[in-house]
Fold these 2 entries.
Entry 1:
Amino acid sequence: MTNEADPTAPAPTPGRNQLVLDELDKIASTMERRFLEGRRVLSFQEYLELFAEQPARYARDAARYVRDMFDHFGTRLVQRPWGELVRYKLFDLPWDEGLSDEGSSADTAAGQSKRYHQREFALVGQEELQGEIHRSLENFVQEGRANRLILMHGPNGSAKSTVAACILRALEHYSTLEEGALYRFHWVFPSRKTVRGAIGFGGEAKAKASEGASYAHLDDDQIDSRLVIELRDHPLFLLPIPERRALVQRLYATVGETSSPPDWLMSGKLSHKNQQVFEALLTSYKGSLAETLRHVQVERYFISRRYRTGAVTIGPALSVDAGERQITADRSLASLPTALQATTLFEAHGELVEAAGGVLEFSDLLKRSIDSFRYLQLTLETGEVPLSQQTMQTNVVMIGSANEIHLAAFRDHHEFASFRGRFELLRAPYLRSYLDEKTIYDTQILPFVNRHVAPHATRVAAQFAVLTRMRQPEAKRYPDALAPIVSSLTAAEKMDLFATGNPPERLDADAQKVLRAGIRSIYEETAAHVEFEGRTGVSPREIRTVLFDAAQSTDHACLSPLAVLGELDELCRRTSEFDWLKEKQLAGGYHDHRLFRDVVRSRLLDTIEDEMRAASGLVDEVRYGELFDRYLTHVGIWVKGEKIRNPHTGAAENPDERMMREVEGLLGVKQKVEDHRRGLISSIAAWAIDHPGQKIVNAVVFPQQMKRLRETFFSDRRKGVALVVRDLVSLLRDRRKQDSGFNALHEEERKRARSAFERLQGMGYCENCALDAASAVLRARFGELVT
């Protein structure tokens, strides 16, 4: 048997065809079951019964709905050097498949890239802004409606649009859940064939509210017309206000709901088109509400950004956000009952209408002429928008964004004061932790890089970006104990403080303790300033270009940190384009972009040097870690004045003073050893209080001491490591030339170089970037040792 359309095509396999049909039937059955279980179409009475089950859920206005959506996804605590912050999980997009790192086996570059790509639209950092948005929503709920516009302001590229996009995405998902179900209603008119006489207009029969079949579930061939209502009025608006209020209050009391119903539900009225239809039907039925409600079809709807339903973003175009048009003459409505055909019906349209019940985002609001959003003053104050034929009631949470340049100009406008009371100004600064900044590049840029990404490429970019955002602290704002320490902080030291919480090594133990305690006040120093920290600096958008350009470097086969440094040099030559390149350089290295590049370059070489030391196999990384563990154990016993059990003899002995003195010599302890030892134990106790239940990790609690020990151990083996790096460079260059002779190396040297490369591969290096890194550190740090 052949295919008539294509005689050469193979004949279909009967078994395979049946499998396809079975699968299609399963999908169809699943969708039908999901439709029915989701209560997609209801009569008015069915909806009222649903409402009575959980009145607080179905009575929500837009402000309560968005607030509840935030609460539904929950929160988690995140630790920052400046304190513990609440993060709202919706900004992690937790409903997207594959976002969790838990249980992932994808440790390869491809697996990492896949996870990152799925996280591309999640928000990194900005926990303070998240909390401010939730606080604003809570205020709206307390005040009865969203009576202000949440205006996020900050420099270009500070994630304002990402914040809004996450909220809109979360609303989309929340509306698909049972907890987030939303309903609107339309009017349906049965055909004369379906019911006897001109049903709905002049019929003598009257029904009780609990009697009479609704027309909501009629098939399409039994309906003459269906009048869609674009404003998504609440179905209970069909009930008179006094009776509606009494009913809602009784239903709240019945289920033990203690919160108050929203004013929108208790006092809201039908839109103009709905009111006209309602009055026409009520008149035709001689005042019978029950007969009128038979025409009501309640429908569940879902928020959608694509279809602009309850989630709408509008740009700064000079357009009206709401309008209306006549629809009575539309031929598609010719089948409406005569009484309605004689009524001039208008439907509202525009972004305010499409966003009803959800969120309307004004992107770059202040790029508009002030006349184009002047109406917001009255709309936010009254909750209404005047149109030519009606006054439209609004039920929407408005979120906007603006950059600092436009906001500064707006502040100087003579009408700013009148707008200020209707705007909730929330700051969205650039991130000031390079670890968070690095996460942005890892998740939003690396998935689109087609080359292998060398270790530290994004860290170099992130450190440079954050350095450009640091502001010199004003010592006069701090108490006497902290002021001199703060005044001595360099831009690089401040960057480290915000990223890791580690104070500079140059400070003594007491000064470090004072500085740690003051991190929050340093971080929040400019919180009330117009010129706040994070207002200026290089944008992540510029760094995005830097990274993509570096990935196309002809000098490097990978996205190399060395290529990134080269592109940063190019970026800093464009002094006429960026304000952050024009700022006056201050003491401590602030605004010194040349110094910033030197800092990140030096730190990169430090890191590569550490990795080469570990890869050489000549320095036992475990040894000094174990030594420090043993030292802390003995110090703890010494501070308590107790004895320690000898593991070999079982005898109780005093702590090993000789060993403690030896380690303290390696650490370069200059203060009294008694004070130093007690300071270590105090640090452990303080960390345990701040991190209850967490295991103490010495590398985290004592990074400086561990670094000093590592450097001391390394100093005696530095030349040996340099020789291994030299051999590694020779090996990788020969491989690049595809020269199998390896004449330059002896067998033992070649073996040692291969082992080093294998260890580097475990750190994420490939042959190309390992050669780049080894060559760079050989030239910069080991040249004098191998000549």
Entry 2:
Amino acid sequence: MLVAAVTAPSTVELVESPDPVATPGWSVVDVSVAPLCTEFTSYRDGVGGDALGHEAVGTVSETAPGSRFAVGDRVVAMPLLGCGSCALCRGGDYIHCPAGIPSEEPLGTLRERIRKPDWLLIAVPDGLSDEHASLACCALGASFGAFERARVSGTDVVLITGLGAVGLGAVANAVMRGCRVVAVETNPYRKDLALRLGAEEVYSPDDDVVAAVRDATGGIGTDVAIECSGAPGAQRTALGAVRRLGTVAFVGNSYGDTPLRVSPDLIFPGLTIFGSWHYNLRAAGRLLDQIARHPGLVSQLITHRYPLADIGSAWQQQIGGHCGKVLIRP
């Protein structure tokens, strides 16, 4: 099979790799959609080899005896791996498995087929396209987990900082829940896309965002802030813009040190703060149902599609920033 491999900075090749084999508890999936996430940084910097990508939807092509799937079933392959036996894995929060990823298991979804444990495959409902189902990974899944933990409802005002693909997905998640949404972003393309998705206002980080948000909410602040950029300045904005007894979810991987003042930032305003990486597997059905009920909205998240052979152009598109979610179609 063909696999995308980064061989030097801004250089990618398709290389041959052995086909995966189904074993007890593991199935082989022919990849139809592999959404791109942060792999463009590996392409840009010339690192990563051929273990790239962590999102996929496809069709089961090989199973082992006892599998709960049959050849021809369409599935979402959840990102990464877990041991499958610890309390976190058994409870659905496998993404926090302390055992991590088995080093002997090859990873990567930017290839023609993958193999995955059956318990990390989610059946795609009839009538839901592979492209829309693929958004149940990082595009919508990352913020969906944060919304679930924060118990966000349609009465909430939500601030979203950072409008990459994950942040744009957070806008869509908030709109699907009926929330009032404000956001922060520098990229004009993504600002416009967020407004088309239903954001009420998109501020620039150069603005006094905390003052603007409080002005827009009658001096109170937002109920929830979903921080998707990982930038220390945006993290401070999220902490400052939520109301007293509000909630801040850190979703974007951080790159820098964010000062945290326990009393003025946490104790006095009574904030709830947590980190969120993915969502509990038990909620997968609810997310897929939410996607199915809003096809027009989720379609807007997908802005570009490329074949595997043209993945270099896809990564250049991401580096340029004029995109929402970019899909690879092996």
